Amino acid sequence: MLKFTRIAALAAVMSLAASAASAAAGDYVFEAVNADMKKGDDVTVAVRLINKRSGKPVPDAVIIRTRVDMAPDGMAEMQSRVTPLPAKEPGVYAFKTDLPMAGRYQLSLSAKVQGEPETVTGSVVIKAAK
For 38-75, how does the pLDDT look when each residue is reduced to its tens digit (9 = 90+)? Predict the structure, then answer.
């Protein structure tokens, strides 16, 4: 009986440790590679997906939703189309979009990270200048 109790206690501790070691969607953040851009058409915007616990970029995430608008300047209806570009660096995700006027743009993203059951969501603000 004592052996069974020890095994059960060990299994419970291992289960708790495994769940504590797994990441949650809130353990990730998107960062702009370059937050200052020139306004124009076909501008390349790149973001890095970072695991906050390790501080390392997260490669091979699948971006499932994107949106660019001018919400930071109170003009959320000012949207531009977003087209994904091939990755040039692990953990960096690039997109082509139009930034037709000077101001602040918000790139909102949703991604699926390998091994993570929740969808990772976030946004970055980019400033477009003349």
Answer: 999 999 999 999 999 999 999 999 999 999 999 999 99
Count of helices and strands (H, E) across the chain:
1, 9
pLDDT in tens, 74-86: 999 999 999 999 9
Task: Give the mean model confidence (pLDDT) for residues 124-129.
Answer: 98
Give the integer Cα–Cα distance in Å for 28 and 79: 25
Judging by DSSP bridges, how do beta strands 36-38 and 120-129 pair with one another? parallel
CA atoms within 13 A on the CB side of 2: 0
Q: Is the pTM of this model over 0.70?
A: yes
Compute the 3-state secondary structure of the chain and give helix, strand, coil in percent, each to the nearest 5: 20, 50, 30
Rounded to whole angstroms, the Cα distance separating 54 from 26 reads: 13
What distances in angstroms separate CA 106 from CA 12, 50, 70, 72, 118, one per listed residue? 44, 18, 6, 7, 22
Q: Which of 63, 65, 53, 62 is nearest to 20 (CA)?
A: 53
CA atoms within 13 A on the CB side of 5: 2
